[in-house]
Amino acid sequence: MKSRLFIGFVTVALVSLLAAGCAGKGTGKKNDTPAVSETTAPVIDGETTLLLKDLEERGDYVNSQYFPSLIKASIVYEEKGKNNLVIDLRTADSYSAGHIEGAVNKQFSELPEYFEKGIKPFEYDRIILVCDDGQLSSYTTSLLRMMGYGNVFAMRWGMGGWNKGYAEEGWLKGVSSEYEDRLEVATNETPVPAGMPVLGTGLQSGSEISDARFRKLFEQGTESIIVTADEVFADPSKYFVINLERKDKYDAGHIPGAVRYKPEATLGFPDMMATIPTDKITVVYCGTGHNSAFASAFLRLFGYDARTLKYGNNSFMYNKMTAEKATLSWLPFTLEESNDFPVVKK
Hints:
The protein is of the alpha/beta class. Helix content is 38%, strand content 10%. The protein has 16 helices and 10 strands. The strands form 2 sheets. Strands 1-5-4-2-3 form a 5-stranded parallel beta sheet. Helix 14 (290-301) links the parallel strand 9 (281-285) and strand 10 (306-309).
């Protein structure tokens, strides 16, 4: 097992010492940065520690080369007829109106039992989850991967990547530049580490705690895993907004109040996760909403009320993304990202 837990706690301790030392210097200026004291030291309870350890022993998916596990629609099409299973997470009506040939229709809440009793997951080369736009399938793939199903993938862009008809009704209606004039470029500092949610399962082992948390998330459903740009920009201060992008993209403009967290140094690192407030809804966003959906699943597993921003930056700064595509490697959705692959009706 890696030593991240130890490193995380040592880092918090060092931050506390440095903050206390800086606060003691007579600069003659008011220090607006609160020092970390015993009363503000992060609270990492025993269950959280056991859960972190269990996930590391399961392969530390969120910090592996396989995170996030996305697959292009073109690859799904090329491998049609091979030893893959496509699971369509959309409603029964949407599935009946048109779906990928051979796909089975399952609802989010049905997946744990389906994976345990309905199929033998590891007999497939790939299990590919599909939804309308890729957000739900990304969230679900993240959970299943953390549970140990290492052959699960989310299809990028959802059905919008499979067929242009779906793209025109979904992604192309979701992109917007409405809030470009409200972006800020100032750097918002990471909060002082204060603690992580208390899980309160009452269980004694990491595997038991993990199973209980996964079960609870599937029972909760998906009603509250996504938030829209309209909701966030109506009152950004209502949320703790996490920007999960490169620094140059963050510096080019972000949601007011958003704090940048490094994608490769946040999830699973208690010293960083302890800086995320537990008394607010956490909104995670990236360029397309795929990566943030994967990340929000991890945070929700640890008790945060984390939600992914639907369509990511595409939902509020689309024109800016298009103009800066070459310089900042933005990924604005266009019909070029979609295909004309066939669907079958039930």
